[in-house]
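Entry type: protein chain
Record version: 2
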Amino acid sequence: MKGFAGGGIIPSGTLQDEDFPPAIFPYSSTDSNLRDGGLAYGAIDFGWAWRTGAFKLSFFAGYFFYAENLNAFGCKQTAGNPFICAPGDVDPSTQVIRQESQLHAVRFGFGTDWRFAERWRLTTDVAWLPYLHINARDTHLLRVDLSGPIRQSGAEALANVQLEAILSYLLTDNFSVGIGARYWHMQGDPGNVTIFFPDRFFPVDVSGSFKTERWGAFIQASYRLGNVEP
């Protein structure tokens, strides 16, 4: 059994919001500043491992959870639409969009663990997410034509993957610290994601898409329960 959990803040960035004809005419593209956002994630896996003295190959199945909150402030029209955020821009202190996303997924994969030197360890994980359920809400706080959040819900398979590599140093036989790199690709294609627009005149369901990619570096500490491996 193994698992991991993490979280972080999203203190800055840019959110681009696009609207296309015929719903909005002409085409609109706006930029807003991100701040006060955050994310949390975790996974738990169960599996079996084959090992030699310095190398281990494992196969596992498990569950993955991911949550993300984005808060966008201000609004600047960049495509020339005269009706949205124009002719004057929205004040940067005014919140315009709140995006909340949750993903639940099944994981299947394999990992390696190589002790290539005294107290040094290199571990890798490759996970395929054959089933991914998306639940998201997109709230446009200044839109008078929307009575509530735009909800997105759906499931997707086949196209989702998680890759990870960690270089660790064992401070004791059971406790280690390390640095790592991670890449996640998770998406729901058109036809598998339903977007519900709570229009002030009538609700509308359409097929849409959802995709999130994350990559970066991290630091970690881990404690191994039980006897130390030979």
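Comment: The radius of gyration is 22 Å.
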